[in-house]
Structure formats: structure tokens, C-alpha cells
Amino acid sequence: MKKIAVYTSGGDAPGMNACIRAAVRAGHYHNLEVYGIVRGYDGMINGNFIELDNRAVSNIIQKGGTILKSARSEEFRRPEGRRKAFEQIQKFGIDGLVAIGGNGTFTGAELFYNEYQIPCVGAPGTIDNDLYGSDFTIGYDTAVNTCLAAIDKIRDTADAHERVFFIEVMGRDTGYIAVRSAISGGAEMAIIPEFPYDKNVVINRLKHGTSDAKASHIIIVAEGHQEGRASMIARDIKEALPQLDCRVTTLGHVQRGGGPSAADRVLASRLGLAAVEGLLEGKANVMAGIIDHKVVYTPFIDTITKRKPINEDLLSLAEKLNGRKYEV
Ligand code: F6P
Asked: Structure pTM?
């Protein structure tokens, strides 16, 4: 293996730049030529390749977003798109790929490997933490800290005005961001897609809380599959308990931006290195992840088809600190 290319794809996540930097520096450490592909799979199709030396990735470890840009490519979903991408890979003489992204990125990488056998090793870059094969994904810790900063601020207003706040967080169809934000923010409840939403549970909890002289509440709602899920739930609750002063805050894309936390920078650096060294060891069609503090490689197909369960210890911790079951 002489020449590798690194790309970011799907939703950006804080720490992607740290991972690019690590892959580039690891490549040069092992005497490889390293290219960056700009705009993910769209850039691969259009031949948007740039050579990256060590200096090209200076001063980026602390930056959010991705210097290589990102996209969700429609064209790569089609065989003709992947054929064009393969032609560009051949034209640039690329022997191996480092893919940084989430579910969609690895779905594309899996298809591409099965058709063209260009070795590819992934690094999990998504705020959602929803990939099987790594305890944490790059960007998750930073996103949770962003939520936490917002929750702390909203709590001031909730407390001052004795209100109930429904705070909607991202996470696609998982509740990882919601559960960790709820625990660290001391929220009263988290409503997550892993459990069916039952409005009576929320109503009972709020009734019990107010009868306990609890004046304000913070309820974290994972977006799930529905846009505006927190507003929908707040409407339900207001209908049943009109005496409560309810408000909704949707944190949205603020969760994707900002400089990565120390934990994300270290994770990204480890996984960028592991992806390149995996390629050099002959690994392909796998994602590098960290499980129990150790680097492991998991087939792309497992990362996208197997569901990583919400950590039960965290769920039971949250239940116990709320004095009752955390299910909704
Ligand atoms: O996968 C990251 C993520 O931020 C999800 O949490 C969210 O559902 C989705 O991407 C939003 O995507 P977009 O930026 O394309 O609206």
C-alpha cells in the first residue's frame, strides 16, 4: 500500500478534523502518500482529490466541522455513481481508503468494497453514538456537552418562572444524546425512541412532582423519527395539565458544531491512527472502534445492521436518581 485517501461523509461531527489529522499524520509516519477527498462520496465521483502533507492538517485538531467538507451523496447510492468513483480512485492510484462518518457512510463503503474491493477502514464520526462496534463515536461527547451547557441555562429560567421545559435533542432514531444529557443535566425525565412514548407516564410524573412542591421540570426529548416531537409532546401535556406553564426548546444543529472536547480529540486521534494501521495490516471493509478502551475492528455490515443497546447501567442510574422507573 502506497497511497491512501481520507474522506468525511454524512452529518459533520466535532472531532472529524482531529481524525483527518491523525490519519494524515499516521499515513506519513508509515511513508504513505495521503490524499483528502473533498465533499465525501460526491467528491470521489467528481475526482475532487487533494494531496495532504503534514502541514496541511496543522492547526485543525481544535476545529469543529470538517476541512474536507461533507455531503450526503445521492449519486453514490446508484451503481453508475459508484462506477465513476472507482474510475477516479484508479486514476489517482489510491490503494486504500479511510472513511470517517456514520451509518450512511459505512453503508456506501460496504457497497463499494463489495463491488470494487478497494480496501477501506472506517472511523465512527457522528454525534449520534449509534454505531455498533464502538463504545463512543467521535463527536458524541462534545454534542452532549453542548446540550448540557444549554440545559444548565434553561434551568435558570425554568426555575425562575416555575415552568416545565421540553428540550429536544438530536440522535436520529436513538436516545444516546438524550440519556447522557438528561443524567448530566439532572433532568427529570428523558423520552427516547427505544421505549414507546406513553403520555400518561409523563403526566403522572409531572403530577407527582408538582404535588411534591417541585416547581420546575426539565424533560429531554430525543428527536426520534418525528420532526417537532418535543412540541407534540408538550401539546399533549398542556392539554392534560393546563395549569402548567410549558415551553419547548429545540437545540438543533448547535449540537453539531463547536470545537471538540478533549475526549473527542483523543478518540479521533486513536481511531484515525487505527484506521491507517488497519489498512497496513491488510484489514478492509471494517470500522475501527474502541470497546473497553481497546481498539477493535468490526465489519461494516455489523456496524450498520446491529443495534447498539442503550447502556443499561445508565438507564438504571437515571431511574434510581429520579426515585422511580425511567421508562416512558
Ligand atoms: O446524524 C447526525 C444528525 O445530526 C442526526 O442527529 C440528525 O437526525 C440528522 O443528522 C440531521 O441531518 P441534517 O443535518 O441533514 O438535517
From this structure: 0.96
